[in-house]
Structure to design on (477 residues):
C-alpha cells in the first residue's frame, strides 16, 4: 500500500482522516524528492541549521495546526523526523463500516502507530442507514485495533453502532484477555446498538470493561430497557479507580427539547447497581426525576451517595424548579433524600430554573397561579445541604423575559438567595448565571438587573451573568 504524506486514506469500505507516509523508514517520497540527503543545499538555510531543542519548541507551539506541521516536515530530514510525533499524535478516523482496513495499515506501519496518543473513531454521515449491518462494530474487533496503538491515551467513540453483546457471544469481550494498560480517557458520544437502537446497558458495561480508563465520559446516550439488561453481578474490578463523568444520558427516547420532565429514576437505580462505588466524578445529565415523588428523590440520592459520595466533584440537579412550587419544596428536610451532605468534596453545583410568569390581566387566562413561595425559597432549602466549601454555583434560567420577572418579590425574591449564599458559602469564587430567552433584547436588559437583586455577590466580585441563544437553551446546538 503506497500513499503520499498529503493523501487521505480513503477507500470504498472506509476513510481515514489523517496523513500517512508510504514507507516504514519515516520519510515520505515527498521529503526525498524535495530534500535529497541531509547534506543537500536545503539544509544550509537557517531553518535547517536550527538547534534540535528550538525545533522541538516550534513544533510544540504548532502541535494543533496540521497544515503548519506538514509544511515543517518538508524543511529537511531532521524537521521531518521531529514533526512525525506531532503529525500523528491525534487521528480522527471515519468509516462506512468496520475499521479493519485501518487496522491493517497500523499493523504494517508500526512507526506511525507508536505516535498515536488520541484516536477518534466514528461512522461517516450516510453510512448509518437502517438495516446496514456492515456498520455494526464488534467490541472485540475494536479491542484488537486498539492493541496496535501502544501509546494511546484518549479514545473517543462517536456515532458508532455496537453489536448486541447479550445476543452475539462473538462480540463479548474475553475475560481471559490480559488487561492492557489503562487509557487516560474514554469518551462515548451518540453511540447506539444495532440499527441505531438505544444502547443496551450491558453493552455500555462491556465497553467500559474492555477499555479501562482513568476517566470515562458519557455524552448523549439513550439507554434501552434497563430492567431487561440489568447485570446481576457486574465485574467492576477494573473500574474502582475510574473517574466517571456523565453529561447526558436518559432512557430510550424519553426526553423533551426544553426541559427534562420525565422521571427516569429507574435508570439511576440501574446505574447504581452497575457502577463501581465512589467512581462518579461528574453528573450533569438531563435525565429528569419527578421531584414531587419522594421515592424518586430517594433513588437518585442513593445513586449519588453510592456511585459518587466523596468522589463527586460536579453535580447538576436533574429537575427544573419553576412555575409550580409543591407543598414540601421549601422545606430543607424534604431534600435530605438527595444525600447532598454525603458529598463533602463537591466543587460545583447547578440549578435549572424556569422563571415564572407574572400574573396580569393580559396573561391571566393562559398563566398558572404564582408560586406558593418564591423560587429562591426552594433554592435556599436545597443549598442548606451542600458543603460550605463549594467553589462554583451555577443558575441556568429559562423563559427569561422582561426584567420585572427577575425583580418580582412574589415569584423570585432573589435578594433572599443572595443573602443565603453570602452567609453559607464564604469560599465561593463564582456565581455563574446563564440566561435563556426568546427575545434577546429583553434578556440583555436582565443582565444588569442581577447586580441590583444580588448586591452581596456583586460586592464580592463573584457574580458572572451571561446570555445564551435560545437554540442552545433547547439543546439544538
Amino acid at each position: 500500500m503506497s500513499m503520499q504524506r498529503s493523501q487521505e486514506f480513503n477507500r470504498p469500505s472506509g476513510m481515514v482522516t489523517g496523513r500517512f507516509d508510504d514507507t516504514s523508514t519515516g520519510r515520505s517520497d515527498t521529503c526525498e524528492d524535495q530534500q535529497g540527503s541531509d547534506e543537500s543545499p536545503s539544509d544550509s538555510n537557517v531553518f535547517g541549521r536550527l538547534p534540535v531543542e528550538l525545533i522541538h519548541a516550534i513544533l510544540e507551539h504548532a502541535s494543533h495546526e496540521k497544515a503548519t506541521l506538514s509544511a515543517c516536515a518538508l524543511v529537511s530530514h531532521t524537521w521531518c523526523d521531529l514533526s512525525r510525533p506531532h503529525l500523528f499524535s491525534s487521528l480522527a478516523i471515519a468509516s462506512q463500516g468496520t475499521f479493519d482496513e485501518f487496522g491493517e495499515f497500523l499493523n504494517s506501519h508500526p512507526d506511525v502507530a507508536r505516535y498515536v496518543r488520541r484516536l477518534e473513531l466514528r461512522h461517516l454521515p450516510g453510512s448509518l442507514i437502517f438495516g446496514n449491518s456492515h456498520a455494526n462494530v464488534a467490541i472485540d474487533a475494536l479491542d484488537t485495533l486498539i492493541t496496535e496503538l501502544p501509546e494511546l491515551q484518549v479514545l473517543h467513540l462517536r456515532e458508532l453502532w455496537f453489536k448486541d453483546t447479550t445476543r452475539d457471544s462473538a462480540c463479548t469481550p474475553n475475560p481471559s484477555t490480559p488487561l492492557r494498560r489503562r487509557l487516560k480517557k474514554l469518551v462515548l458520544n451518540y453511540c447506539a446498538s444495532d440499527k441505531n437502537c438505544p444502547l443496551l446497558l450491558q453493552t455500555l458495561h462491556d465497553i467500559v470493561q474492555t477499555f479501562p480508563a482513568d476517566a470515562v465520559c458519557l455524552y448523549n446516550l439513550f439507554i434501552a430497557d434497563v430492567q431487561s439488561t440489568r447485570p446481576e453481578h457486574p465485574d467492576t474490578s477494573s473500574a474502582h479507580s475510574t473517574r466517571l463523568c456523565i453529561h447526558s444520558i436518559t432512557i430510550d427516547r424519553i426526553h423533551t427539547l426544553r426541559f427534562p420532565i420525565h422521571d427516569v429514576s429507574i435508570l439511576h437505580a440501574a446505574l447504581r447497581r452497575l457502577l463501581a462505588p465512589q467512581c462518579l466524578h461528574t453528573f450533569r445529565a438531563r435525565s429528569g426525576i419527578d421531584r414531587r415523588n419522594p421515592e424518586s428523590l430517594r433513588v437518585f440520592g442513593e445513586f449519588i451517595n453510592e456511585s459518587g459520595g466523596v468522589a463527586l466533584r460536579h453535580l447538576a440537579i436533574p429537575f427544573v424548579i419553576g412555575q409550580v412550587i409543591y407543598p414540601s419544596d421549601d422545606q430543607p428536610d424534604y431534600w435530605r433524600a438527595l444525600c447532598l451532605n454525603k458529598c463533602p468534596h463537591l466543587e460545583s453545583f447547578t440549578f435549572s430554573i424556569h422563571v415564572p410568569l407574572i400574573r396580569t390581566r393580559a396573561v391571566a387566562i393562559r398563566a398558572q397561579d404564582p408560586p406558593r413561595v418564591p423560587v429562591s425559597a426552594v433554592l435556599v432549602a436545597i443549598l442548606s445541604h451542600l458543603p460550605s466549601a463549594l467553589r462554583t454555583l451555577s443558575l441556568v434560567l429559562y423563559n427569561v423575559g422582561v426584567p420585572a420577572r427577575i425583580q418580582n418579590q412574589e415569584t423570585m425574591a432573589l435578594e433572599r438567595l443572595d443573602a443565603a449564599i453570602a452567609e453559607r458559602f464564604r469560599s465561593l469564587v463564582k456565581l455563574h448565571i446563564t440566561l435563556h430567552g426568546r427575545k434577546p433584547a429583553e434578556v440583555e436588559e436582565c443582565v444588569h438587573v442581577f447586580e441590583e437583586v444580588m448586591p452581596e455577590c456583586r460586592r464580592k466580585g463573584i457574580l458572572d451573568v451571561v446570555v445564551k441563544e435560545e437554540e442552545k437553551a433547547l439543546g439544538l446546538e
Observations:
- The radius of gyration is 27 Å.
